[in-house]
Amino acid sequence: MGLELKIDKCCCLFNLRDGSLSIGLTLLITSLLNFFANLIALIIHGSGGSVPHGFITGGIFGNFITMAGGSMESLLVGLLVINLASAIIHALLVYGVYGNRKDFVLIWLILFGLMLLFFLITVIVNIGMLISSTFGYTVVQLLILAVLIYWWLVVYCYRSG
């Protein structure tokens, strides 16, 4: 007798299919917006302009590149690759839910699960090394992680149901 997880609604409002589709679209749009923001930052930086640090949507990844002594170009190119890969992964979820292709949903569950694991590790390292400059930044990271784990569980229950 194993542990059985049962979520019937997404956000106490939507059925699991609609919730999973909304999650996929939200993550896809966010990844694409981050991609274009970082592309603009790369163009500005390449033309000699200065890019405000808050403009770059690198978060923890940006902190690690900076600590490793990486250049702004390597940070931005790395972020572009990550954002594009994320968009492709989230498009798999949207396609899987919309087309009722649960095999694509499974691929998303595995890949997004790995992304969550990486995010969890980086948050722990961030807390341990005191990379973040404020307590509030760490709290926001933990809240985002909690929401993303909940979304993963919603999609998992959709696929299982």
UniProtKB/TrEMBL annotation:
Keywords: Membrane, Transmembrane, Transmembrane helix
TM segment ranges: 23-44, 75-98, 105-129, 135-158
Superkingdom to which the source organism belongs: Eukaryota
Protein name: Uncharacterized protein
Organism: Amphibalanus amphitrite
